């Protein structure tokens, strides 16, 4: 299967920006060590500092699925449930 990309956006509830940032930073290292990850970069929106954006590249849909089930992602999701106002994940493929 062809390489895929992901844009994952998390918006912190007001007052929880730094808690969410720390939690997001905490999953970067373990994720970069996963099989199938090509890129896993965390960004913060300059105009809306409550918005965090991951830009990701994966070797396959299967690698992304394994990532979603990993222990560190499951722990992250449980930890941030009260800190996230909105989350959106878009899986895309490069066309040009």
What descriptors fit this protein?
3 helices; oxidoreductase; 96 residues; ABM_dom; 4 strands; globular; Antibiotic biosynthesis monooxygenase; Alpha-Beta Plaits
Could you give the topology of this structure?
Elements: E1 4-12, H1 17-32, E2 37-44, E3 51-58, H2 61-68, H3 71-80, E4 84-92
Antiparallel strand pairs: 1-3, 1-4, 2-3
Report a brief summary of the structure.
The chain is α+β, with helices and mostly antiparallel strands and 96 residues long. The protein has helices at 17-32, 61-68, 71-80, and strands at 4-12, 37-44, 51-58, 84-92. It has a single domain (4-92), classed as Alpha-Beta Plaits.
What does this protein structure show overall?
With 96 residues, the chain is an alpha+beta fold. It has one domain: Alpha-Beta Plaits, CATH 3.30.70. Helices cover 35% and strands 35% of the residues. It has 3 helices and 4 strands. The chain has helices at residues 17-32, 61-68, 71-80; strands spanning 4-12, 37-44, 51-58, 84-92. Strand 2 (37-44) and strand 3 form a beta hairpin. Helix 1 runs antiparallel to helix 3. The protein is globular and about 40 Å long.
SSE pattern, N- to C-terminal: EHEEHHE
Q: What global shape is seen? A: globular
- Give the proportion of residues in helices: 25-40%
CATH class: Alpha Beta
Summed up, the domain count is: 1
Mean pLDDT equals: 96
Distance between the termini: 17 Å
- What is the count of DSSP helices, taking H or I runs of 4+ residues? 3
Radius of gyration from the alpha-carbon trace, in angstroms: 13 Å
What is CATH's topology name? Alpha-Beta Plaits
Instruction: List unreliable stretches of 5+ residues.
Output: none
The structure class reads alpha+beta
Biggest sheet overview = 4 strands, antiparallel
> How much of the sequence is in beta strands?
35-45%
Q: Strand arrangement, largest sheet?
A: 2-3-1-4
Q: What is the number of E strands?
A: 4
- Architecture (CATH level 2) name: 2-Layer Sandwich
């Amino acid at each position: 299967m062809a390489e895929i990309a992901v844009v994952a956006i998390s918006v912190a509830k007001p007052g929880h920006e730094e808690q969410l940032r720390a939690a997001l930073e905490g999953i970067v290292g373990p994720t970069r060590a996963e099989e199938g990850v090509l890129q896993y970069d965390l960004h913060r929106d300059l105009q809306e500092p409550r918005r965090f954006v991951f830009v990701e590249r994966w070797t396959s849909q299967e690698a992304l699925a394994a990532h979603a089930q990993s222990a560190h992602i499951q722990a992250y999701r449980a930890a941030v449930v009260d800190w996230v106002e909105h989350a959106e994940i878009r899986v895309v493929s490069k066309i040009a």
